[in-house]
Every structure is written in C-alpha cells, then in structure tokens.
Amino acid sequence: MRKMMTSVAAMTAAIALAAGAASAGQEDNLVVNEEIEIVVRTDAPAHMENVDTIYSGWTFRSDETQALQMDDFDNPGMIFVDMGREVFDAAAGSEGKSCASCHESPENLKGVKAVYPKWNDQAEEVYTIEMQINECRTDRMGAEKLKYNGGDMTNLVALLASVSRGMPVNVAIDGPAQSTWEWGKELYYSRTGQLELSCANCHEDNYDNMIRADHLSQGQINGFPAYRLKNAKLNTVHDRFKGCVRDTRAETYAPASPEFVALELYLSSRGNGLSVEGPSVRN
Amino acid sequence: MKRTFVAAAVVMAGTFPALAEVVAPAAVTYADGAVAQSLTGQAGNADAGRTVMTTRGLGNCIACHQVTALEDFPFHGEVGPSLDGAGDRWTQEELRGIVANAKMMFDGTIMPAFYKKSGYVRPGDGYTGKAAKEEDLEPLLTAQQVEDVVAYLATLTE
After folding, report:
1. Which of the four, A16, A69, A119, B97, has the lowest number of CB atoms within 10 Å?
2. Is the pTM of this model over 0.90?
3. In a domain, B34, yes or no
4. pLDDT, tens digit (0-9, with 9 covering 90-100), for A147-162
C-alpha cells in the first residue's frame, strides 16, 4: 500500500516534470499572508480583441519566485513599503506638512492605486499616481517634486499599492481618457527598433512561450512596483517599459514621458479585473 | 587596363577591394521571398554559422527556435517553429531569403530581418536605448554571416 502510494507520487512528479518548466505553478492561486486573495487569472476585459483570459505575471514565475510573494516576511519588496511609510509621515516643504497631515494613513488611500492612471479634470490630462503625489507636494505642501522614478517616489507607490492589494484593477478608458488610451494602444502595437518587435509580439502573440531562457508573460502591470531578483531592487513600471523597448534595439521613451503615461494607462486597462498585487516579486 | 578600372571603381566606392563583391542590403533582390544570388560570392562556413545562431549579440536564432543539433547550447525558444529539417524543407536560395529578410517570405512575421539597414521605427544604437542615426545603422548580420548561417541551415536535414 505504502509502496503504491509512493509510486503514484513518483508518477505525478514525473508527469509534472514532463509538462515542463514552462508550466510550473501556472495553475496555482495566490493568497498573500493566508489572508489577501489575489485574482491572478480572469476573463479579459471586453476591449481586448485577441485575448480571452488575462493572467498575472506571477502565474508564469517559478515555484520559488512565486512563494516569495505569498508572505510579507519573505517578500523583499515589503522593506520598501516600510520605507514608504517613513516618507508618508515625514514633513516636507514650506507648509510643514506630511502626507499624513491630510490623508491620515496610507490605508485611507486604499483603492486609489487600482484606478490610476486616471483623468485629472483640473490638469486636463491623464495622471499617473506619481503625478498625483507630486501635485500634492508642489501645490499642497510647498515641497519640491520627488524624482519621478526615484527611490522615495517608488517606495510611496509601493506603499499605496500594498494597501490596495486584492482589489481589482479598474482604470477608466472612456470619456476624456479615451484619446490617451487610444495612443497607448497604438504604442503597444507599434513595432519598434532594429528587431521590429511590438509589445504585442511578445506579450500577446507569445505569452506562455519561452524566448531563450525567459517564460513570456502577458506583460501585465498589476504587480508594480515589482521587486526583481535580477537587480535586487524595486522596479517602476516605466523602468520596465524602458527595458523592454531597449531590448527591441530601439530608442526608448523616458520615464514620465507622455508616451509612457499613455502606455501605462493602456496596459493597466488590459489588467482590469486582476488584483492589485504590488509590490510583486519577479525574476 | 581592366585592373586599373576596378581599382578606380573601388576608390570611388570608398571601400576595400575584398568587400567589392558584397551585395548591399538595399540591393538584394527577392523573388517569392528567396534570394538567388550569394551576398558575398563566397561559400558560407557552417561552423561560423553555428556560432552566429547561438550567440546572443549575433543571430541568437535559438532564442526563438528549437534546434536539436544545437542542444549543447541551453535554452531554446518556442516563438518560431523547430528548425530541424530546415535544410530539407527549403532550398539554399529560400534559406538566404528567410535569413536576410524573413518578412519577404512570411508576411508580417515576428522574425527580425537580419540583412536590412533602413525602414525602422525609432531605431536604437544597439541595446543602449539611445537613438541611432539612420545612416550609421548596420544590418544585424554581415553579408558573410548570413551566408554562414545559410550554410549551417543546409546541414539541418533529417
């Protein structure tokens, strides 16, 4: 009896192996701290023409990488969240105020990350959460802008993501945001650089395929900022865009550029329905 | 007499005599995706082609293609079809066309064009992310490297 069980286990292991590294943990579900349920796969939003199901990048990572995101004590990104709390509470600027002076706690801003980028009526443009934070600093605190993809800003964004974990991404793409969204879509499908590759070539046409040693995901951004094992730091979404564009042997856009803001809105909308999961862990 | 003439032509083209026979990217003629004329007039070297196919900064063909004969090199991709038997499926002329500019054979394909210098959107200076001047661009592979890869592909028979 015991022997039989062992051999069944061995068989299951063999089958898992035969299925190949490519599908490691792809069926798994993500619950953080045994408490926060993360939607890692769901029906694609209606505006997506070529994809039926959307998947978090987490589902494409190895079991080991996946495990790091299941507990905040193991998630190296959470250190940066703690640093973000310090920035949140620190007074800055001529008004002597901190974020906490007006927003009380980061938890008070729960849900905000899920709906950004978002149209800003006063500025008459689409705002990323970084742009909104910098507006609070310049217009409400009398402080300097934080560097758009610098450490303090990224830690604040990780903090605001962390308090929204488990909430569905739900960015608006109609109304005044529509033209920015359309632009982002155009950028997503543009084949750039000497390799003439678009985001879609890799992340829509070939997700779940290996490209050399990399298991291609859908390039979702619900997990940003992302702690990458490769560079052992928290990576902003615009830095990730930059890296992927550069890899097509193209001239990239700069972080904070209107192009990347548009691309961010478009990509966020491709993840509408997945949960916010930043700070995520990726390889 | 003839010699002087060639030398003069070479000086005018501002290039070295040995390169005089190379077909420039813009001068390559495709017929149904195939290229009949050798790009260098010299036979390709299959061993050199194998290096081009497996090296990241060169062809990096195995990033997208599985090739059983190249199993010593780790991590073969799944974006394109396996190249096993490519030497049976295609003539040398067709292989030259596919490697030089696969878009001539497979409309809209993801496979990069390896022997072309213009017509890009926002071309970069290698992998720096910085802009390249269009006139400074080199094709991803040299004419001889294309011939070398073609020679290697021709060995992939079943």
Report:
1. A16
2. yes
3. yes
4. 999 999 999 999 999 9
